[in-house]
């Protein structure tokens, strides 16, 4: 995953980026795939030879028999979510020196069992869950084990810090905080969503905030509001809201074109994780960050379903920070799912640019103007003489005519590299003799988002007004010329 901080107003830097292909390099951090995982997926993720590092919350989606390993520089929060994690032999979970494991249950209480449940050489904290078996700290490892909640088959007193109590509960031991009510819990029956994936992600995010409240960020303030609503007995509901009909600011569009240079830009979406208080209609928030990723699906036209069949797709997520800057994240695990939608996972919400590799895909009428590739209906030059867009529309000069068309004749946008203006084509999509945006200022027409590389900086409406005046002048001149010819011809015939 590539993370870059981009200042929205840094046009000089962005324009420089427009002239280069940006290499999207994966970082070494935060590479552990989290979210709701099957047994096979969790065994593949937490294995003894893993070289991945970073932090992640992992939710078990089914009962699992496995030997899991938390390696150095890995920090894992594991939620068994009502399921059972066990081993047939050896330690169920091994935490190596430098590794960190937190066992918690955000929704249903699950179980971790084994003759040795945890062999710890790193750091372990247990907050909730049923633990059946021994917890062992490896001698000489300087391991640290802290238990602040849960039910245990073996007395865990040696790992329980001050402020917490161990009580017998039948044949088991229960750990609770002294004098604590249910302030650190929420009624998850009050949390609903359009699907189970979103609901679980919201539950985990709310509990993560309870564990580590952070009120200085906008996201933290919104989570605090939602928790307060639940404690008032209100039900909250989560859904993903996608908007493709965007009116982007000029510098934001420049940023997107710069960061996607070297690929084909298909569409830009704004996707929000929206949570509503169903009782208090005035409380509706769009969370920027979740503690775990969710799957996002974007419907696409049948045209692109076929066109994308053999293409590598990618998403660039432009995540807006509280200070107005953007972080760009590169998501290359993008697929066409069984419903024919573009699908990927993310835990951050803002703007998303869908890109694809290879040659530009031919035009789809549903595509926005600023990403629609040039028409392939180039004809043989015999099209309508006037055409829609100049002197040779649908003929030798392609979709947008010749030298007098809306898009001129010599400067264009290269759709293999859509952010880089071209200067040498005569039959191109966005020429320069009469560009949408003239010939001088570096701006973007918000109606079309076509970069303006050199001109006087007019918008589309002004351009059309100027064109109308020019056409009237031309027609007037032609009529005057025709009248003069008729007058001269008449004079000759009279002779």
What is the helix fraction of residues, given as a range? 10-25%
Q: Point out poorly predicted stretches.
A: 1-31, 368-460, 478-495
Spatial separation of the terminal alpha carbons? 86 Å
> What is the total domain count?
2
- How many DSSP helices? 7
SS-derived structural category: alpha/beta
Overall residue-averaged pLDDT value: 73
Report the β-strand fraction as a percent range.
Answer: 25-35%
Identify the overall geometry: globular
Summarize the main sheet: 9 strands, mixed
Strand elements, count: 30
Rounded to an integer in angstroms, the radius of gyration calculated over CA atoms is 31 Å
List keywords for this structure.
495 residues; alpha/beta; 8-stranded mixed beta sheet; 7 helices
């Amino acid at each position: 995953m590539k993370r870059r901080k981009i200042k929205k107003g840094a046009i000089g830097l962005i324009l420089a980026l427009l002239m280069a292909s940006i290499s999207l390099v994966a970082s070494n951090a935060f590479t552990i795939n989290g979210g709701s995982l099957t047994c096979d997926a969790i065994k593949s993720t937490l294995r003894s030879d893993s070289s991945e590092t970073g932090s992640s919350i992992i939710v078990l989606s089914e009962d699992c028999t496995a030997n899991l390993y938390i390696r150095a520089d890995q920090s894992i929060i594991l939620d068994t979510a009502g399921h059972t994690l066990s081993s047939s032999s050896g330690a169920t979970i091994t935490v190596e020196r430098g590794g960190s494991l937190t066992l918690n249950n955000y929704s249903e209480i699950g179980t971790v069992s084994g003759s040795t449940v945890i062999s710890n050489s790193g750091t372990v904290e247990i907050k909730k869950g049923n633990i059946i078996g021994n917890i062992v700290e490896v001698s000489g490892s300087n391991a640290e084990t802290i238990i602040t909640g849960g039910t245990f088959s073996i007395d865990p007193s040696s790992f329980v810090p001050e402020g917490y109590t161990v009580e017998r509960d039948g044949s088991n031991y229960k750990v609770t905080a002294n004098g604590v009510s249910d302030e650190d819990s929420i009624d998850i029956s009050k949390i609903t969503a359009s699907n189970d994936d979103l609901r679980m992600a919201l539950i985990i995010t709310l509990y993560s905030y309870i564990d580590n409240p952070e009120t200085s960020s906008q996201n933290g303030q919104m989570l605090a509001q939602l928790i307060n609503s639940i404690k008032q007995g209100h039900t909250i509901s989560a859904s993903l809201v996608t908007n493709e009909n965007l009116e982007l600011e000029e510098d934001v569009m420049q940023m997107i074109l710069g960061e996607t240079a070297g690929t084909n830009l298909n569409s830009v979406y704004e996707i929000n994780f929206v949570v509503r208080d169903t009782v208090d209609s005035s409380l509706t928030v769009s969370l920027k960050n979740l503690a775990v990723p969710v799957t996002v699906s974007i419907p696409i036209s049948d045209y692109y379903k076929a066109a994308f069949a053999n293409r590598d797709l990618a998403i660039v997520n432009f995540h807006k920070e509280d200070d107005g800057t953007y972080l760009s994240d590169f998501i290359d695990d993008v697929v066409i799912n069984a419903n024919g939608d573009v699908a990927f996972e993310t835990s951050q919400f803002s703007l998303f640019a869908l890109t694809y590799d290879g040659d530009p895909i031919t035009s789809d009428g549903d595509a926005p103007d600023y990403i629609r590739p040039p028409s392939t209906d180039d004809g043989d030059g015999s099209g309508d003489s006037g055409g829609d867009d100049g002197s040779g529309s649908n003929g030798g000069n392609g979709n947008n005519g010749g030298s007098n068309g809306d898009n001129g004749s010599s400067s264009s946008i290269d759709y293999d590299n859509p952010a880089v203006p071209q200067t040498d084509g005569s039959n191109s999509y966005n020429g320069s003799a009469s560009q949408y945006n003239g010939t001088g200022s570096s701006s973007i027409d918000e109606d079309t988002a076509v970069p303006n590389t050199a001109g006087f900086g007019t918008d589309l409406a002004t351009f059309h007004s100027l064109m109308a005046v020019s056409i009237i002048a031309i027609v007037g001149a032609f009529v005057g010329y025709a009248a003069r010819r008729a007058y001269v011809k008449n004079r000759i015939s009279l002779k």
